[in-house]
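Hello support,

Our group uses your service weekly, and this is the first time we've seen a run hang past the timeout. The protein is Reverse transcriptase domain-containing protein. I'm not sure whether the cause is the sequence or the server load. Input pasted verbatim:
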Amino acid sequence: MNRVTTRLTGIYAYLDNLIVTGKSWENHVERLCVLFTRLASYHFKANFAKSEFGHAKLVYVGHVKVGGQSGTPSQQKKEGPGIHPVPVKKAKVSPMTAAKPTSF
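Update from on-call engineer: The timeout came from a worker crash unrelated to the input. Re-ran successfully.
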């Protein structure tokens, strides 16, 4: 996906997700047109049922993007994972941590 979005201003790829930003609505629509043209040239299709358009604010992967500005860490990311209580029952401990090591 990074190859598809190379040199496209305001369009970012993360795994199979695409984020399109713009400083104005017209700029946003223009970038969407450029993106859809590029996707078609690579024979990719957009799933419009899973797509969202026209958001002024986006929270994604722990960052908040507003308009065409760069992202800032979200409040939740700044606070961290928080304090979790220590498990008191063995069943509450993750099976990954309780598993016995295997020998090869």
